[in-house]
What does this fold into?
Amino acid sequence: MQTLKEILSAHLRAAFQAAFPGADLSGLPLDALPAGDEAFGDYQCNGAMAAAKVLRLPPRKIAEQVAARIPADGLSARAEIAGPGFINLTLSESALARHLEAMQADPLLGIPQPGAGQTLILDYSSPNVAKPMHVAHIRSTVIGDALKRIHRALGCTVISDNHLGDWGTQFGKLIMGYRHFLDPAQFAAAPVHELERIYVLSSQKAEADPAWEDQCRAELVKLQAGDSENRALWRKFMEVSLADLARIYGRLGVSFELTRGESYYHDALPALIEKLQALGLVRESEGALVAFLDDEKLPPCIVRKSDGGYNYATTDLATVFSRVEEFRPDAIIYVTDERQQLHFRQFFAVAQKAGVRTPLRHVWFGLMRLPDGLLSTRMGNAIKLDLLLDEAEKRALEIVKTASPDMPASQQQAVARAVGIGAVKYADLSQNPQSAVTFTWEKALAMDGNSAPYLQYAHARIASVIDKHAERFPGIDFMRVPLDLDTPQARRLALRLARYPDAVRDAAEQEKPSLLADALYDLSQAYSSFYQNVPFLKADAGLRESRVRLCDLAAKVLRHGLDLLGIETPERI
Ligand code: ARG
It folds into this structure.
C-alpha cells in the first residue's frame, strides 16, 4: 500500500509535469511534507521554489499552475498557495477515512515494503566479554534492536550479529587475575561477579605495575597462539559470561541471529593481511603494518602492531569480508557510541580500497548519563544494568498498584516488568540518538509526558474502549461501519494515524527510532484530545461504531509502533 506522503508526492510531481510538459524536473524536491502548522493545511510542498531556477519563472506563478492541476477527486480536497510559493494541501475527510480503512484492513498496517528483497546486517550490542557492560553497550543494544525491528517492518531481511569483544586484552588480565586472586567459593556462587572482581583487581595492578602488565600481555599472546591451558580458561570465562549475557538479553527481550565474537575471525587474520599486502594497501612503518589513508584525509590505520598482534580494525576488516562473502548483504550497519567514529571511517576506507562494494554505515549515538549509583566510574562507566532494571520494575510496580489496585499481584508484577523495562528503553529511544541523554526516573516514568508508561497506558485505555463496546453492544461489528471523521479531533487523530507508515520509513531511512517515538507520542496526544472531547460509547448508533473503529486503529498502530521499539503493550495497566 502507498503511504500518504507517497500518494501526495506522486500527485504533486504529476501536476508539475502536466503544468510544464517538456521541462526536466527530475531530481527536484517536489515532495509533500507534513505541514509545520496545521493552520496552513495538512501537507506542504516547497517545490515551486526549487523549480523556479529551472523554469525561470516566479515561484508563485509556478505554484498557481501546479495547484490548478492537483486532482480534486484525490486525497487532497484543497491546494492553496501561500507566501512566496508554498503549495498547501488539505486532505478531504472522506478520502482520508477511506485511506485509513485500507490501512486497517492491511495486515501490514499500510507500511510500505521498500526493503523487500534486501538483506541487511546489523551489528550492535557487542559488549566486551567478561568485563562489566559499559553504558554505551546498553544504548547500542536498545537502539540496534529497534532498528532491526523497524527495518524488518519495511520488508528487509535483517541479520543481527552481536560482535562480541571476546578476544581482546581483557583476557590476559583475567587469566592473571584468575591465577592470583580467585576466590573459588565466590566463583562457584556468583561467577560473573567474581570475574568482574578479579578483572578490576588485575587491571588496577597492571596500571601500577608494568611487570604485571607485561605478564598479562604475555598470557594474551599465549592464548591467541593456542596455548591449551589458556584456551581452557578462556572457554570457562566465555561460558560464564555468555550465560549471563543471555540472561540480560532475555530480560530486555533482545535476541540475535548471530553471535560471532572477534574470536570467530582469528584464523582469518593472517590471510587478510596477505590480501592487503597483495593489493599494496599496507606497508611497514616503525615495525607495524599500516594502511595510509592520506587521500581520505584520515590518520593511518594499523592492521598489525609492531609486536605482531592484530587489533580491532584488523578483526573488523576480516569480519566485513566474511559477512560479504557469506550473506551478500545490501548494507552493513554498525551501532556504537560516538567515540568510535574515527575507527569506522578508517576501516571503512580500507575495506573500500580492498574492494568491498557493500555500503557500510556507522550509526553512532551519544553517551547516556545515568542516575547516581548506577554507574561505576571506578570500572570506567560500567553499568550496573541489573540494578537499573530492578529499580525500574520496582518503581513501575508502584504505578501499576496505584492504577489497578484490584489486579491480581502476579499480573501486577508482569505488567510492572513490561512498564519498567519499557520505560528504560523508551527513555533512550525517544531521544535523538546523536545527542547526549540524561536519564531521570521522573522523565522515564512520567505518566503525563513522553514516556513508555504514558504510551502503554494510552494503549490500554483505548483497548478498554473496544472491550466495553463489545460488552455493551454485543454482536455489533464496528468494522462494518465506515469511518466518519466528523469532528476536528477525529480528523486530527486520523491524520496522525495515516502518517504512521511514513514515520516508520523515516525512522529507518535516517536510522533514528526517535522519529517513530515522536510519531507515537503525537498520536497519543491526538487520541487524548479525541477521548476527552468526543463521546464514543454514548454517541448514537453508527457514529458510535465509527468512533470505536477509529479507536481500534489507534490501538493497533500504538501496539505496532511500540513493538517496533521493542516495548510491550499490556492490555491493562
Ligand atoms: N566491542 C566493541 C566495544 O565494546 C564494539 C564492537 C562494535 N562492532 C564492531 N564491529 N566493531 O567497544
The domain at 385-564 is CATH 1.10.730.10 (Isoleucyl-tRNA Synthetase; Domain 1). The pocket of arginine is lined by residues 123, 126-128, 163, 165, 316, 334, 336 (CB under 6 Å). Residues 228-252 form the longest helix (25 residues).
